[in-house]
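Kindly review this protein for my students:
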Amino acid sequence: MTAPGTRAEASAEDTDDLDVEEALALVRDAHREPRDDSTDDGAGQASAPAGQSPGARPAERHRATPWPQAREAAARAARSRARRAPVSVPLGDALGLALAAPLDALTDLPSFDTSAMDGWAVAGPGPWQVREEGVLAGHTQPGPLTDGEAVRIATGARIPVDTTAVLRTEHGRIDAQGRLHTTREMLHGQDIRPRGQECRSGDQLLPVGTLVTPAVLGLAAAAGYDTVTVVPRPRAEVLVLGDELLTEGLPHDGLIRDALGPMLPPWLRALGADVIAVRRIGDDAKALQKAVTRSAADLIVTTGGTAAGPVDHVHPVLERVGAELLVDGVKVRPGHPMLLARTKDQQHLVGLPGNPLAAVSGLLTLAEPLLRTLAAHPAPEPYTLPLREAVHGHPHDTRLIPVVLRGDHAMPLHYNGPAMLRGVAAADALAVVPPGGARQGEEAELLDLPWATAGIGVCFT
């Protein structure tokens, strides 16, 4: 189920009105019917989720996880599985991946003495007699110079033997007799890049785990690499649930546009995943179970169907396939009914709520730490900024609020309901608001959005 404000999921999300939210939360805590997670296994027997005894009371099984612990559980789940074998990829395919082997120098850099500037290579003290033919980059070794001799040279060209220094073009002048003079003091070795100045063959340039940025690609190319050994991208598959979803045109007759189908694949790619498939399942439990059991992805992402409504099939399907629920609900708004399960030894499933902003919350809470860890990317350094406005909080749960960054403050955006994308579409980050809310000027932890960090994670193709 992937609909803004639809069916049972709407009751599990927050509103902008603190009094209403607090009342709803208290009513739910006191009077909510416990969800019966058991299903018929085909023989009339009720099957309990993995790790739970069949006789356990449903209310005792379901305990939402605090938001920080949920993120750590996702990272821990990725660490607990065997890492995929490193792969060798061409430089053009390595952007955003982590090095699985050190980048060692294959040669001296530079591999010969080169000119650092356009000008003249000179030998001995001036003035100098200038040769007729110059030296260009990429040409063979020029003949040696003798004292009192100079030759025109281009940046990057090989230095003739016995060169004293390179005289920059703007620091030299030619007299009427064709002799070269310097217009300022010149030092021995000036503007010459000696062989091995940057590194010697065999030096370690970058260690294992380094994120491949454009600069890393440039260094690898300069060092003579055609391929690099990296940790492969985690494979992700998206299963879009909900019979009420349209893929084109205007909403009509109770049908709505699917917002998550277009949004999730590029967002997952921006988080470092290789999205191998996007499948539209509808509200079909058998089709969902078939898709889950046949998936070859490292991470399956489902949209909607994680609550307890009549067509919320994710929990029953996970139970039937013998999955282990690692996180079943998170104390965060929006996004409370998200979940994380281990479906196979080397596969996990993140169940996102159907409301769009709630799904974003699930991505950043569960999918991002898991994918980051699978890809061997370093965790971002946490940072905070003061809030320019006060933010209402949930009485018990963390809230994630879209914000824009303005100077040294974070400005909360007002379109932050669970079914809304208008706020996050304009946002730079999500502010982490603790239970009870945050005052104006109070420091809030920020979660950067992948396209707002100016990093190489912005990989939408």
The chain has a mean pLDDT of 85. The longest helix spans residues 356-374.
